[in-house]
Amino acid sequence: MHVFVTGGTGQTGPAIVAELVRAGHRVTGLARSDAAAGRLEELGAAALRGTLDDVEALSAGAARSDGVVHLAFGGADFSDPPAMTRRDVAAIRALGAPLVGTDRPLVVTSGTLVMPAGRVSTEADAASPDSIGGLRYEGEQACLGLASRGVRSVVIRLAPTVHGPRDHGFVPMLIATARRTGFSAYVGDGSNRWPAVHRLDAAVLYRLALETAPAGSALHGVGEEGVPFRDIAGKIGERLGIPVRSVDAADAAEHFGNPFMAIVYAADAPVSSAQTQRLLGWAPRHETLLDDLDRGDYFAAP
After folding, report:
1. Which of 153, 190, 252, 291 meets the CB 3.0–4.6 Å disulfide criterion with 262?
2. What is the pLDDT of residues 154-208, one digit of tens each?
3. What whole-number distance in Å separates Cα of residue 121 and Cα of residue 124?
């Protein structure tokens, strides 16, 4: 299969591109710079120059492919979430248009934080536009709506922590805060739960979804349903040799640097992937988040 990929040089993208290439697929990735194009070539993929705002490039890449994996997300300006959502929806529509009536796959990335908080959500539960990850909601709907138009459209909701080497997501930011403040913090009693998945397990899930997932599927990219946040903070404190303690919800924004991060780190957002695993025969097998914090590269450099 010839697969067109957006976001192939981001945090999770290289693992997915490598997994597809190893499985015998031919990959072309969207590249907005010479560096991105070079990275794709190192991974065994070709490059198509363009950006997420270049809908003609997106449509051309999709039209020449046998399937699409959309990983990139509407820019990085979190000060304007609606603009990020608009870019994402426009990109999904541009990628999906050439696939209409072909039954070719379109795999779009979302996040488990789009699910209702406070209980273990399953793939059968509805996403919520009012959730922490609600900026992903419209993109999900744009993708899944294509299933009725002859596109094998699939949404993968990734855990907020996709861990592994050279992670630059929420956990490294938490570690940086602990270094800066001199203690590793959790909010309240720290019993809130975070799902997690290893990057290499996520890569296998994307390949399986591309190859076999039914049209209209909403899948959960989760290896662990919910790791207590107090345990994450405790492991960080242990590795840094600093105290571990609670911060009040009222003080969390100041401690973590901004209100959004305070909300994210206090979120109780457990998610099940049991249905995804049964449907695709997917079996996460790599390190847990706490094992990765113990043995990975999270503390290799300040």
Report:
1. 252
2. 999 999 999 999 999 999 999 999 999 999 999 999 999 999 999 999 999 999 9
3. 8
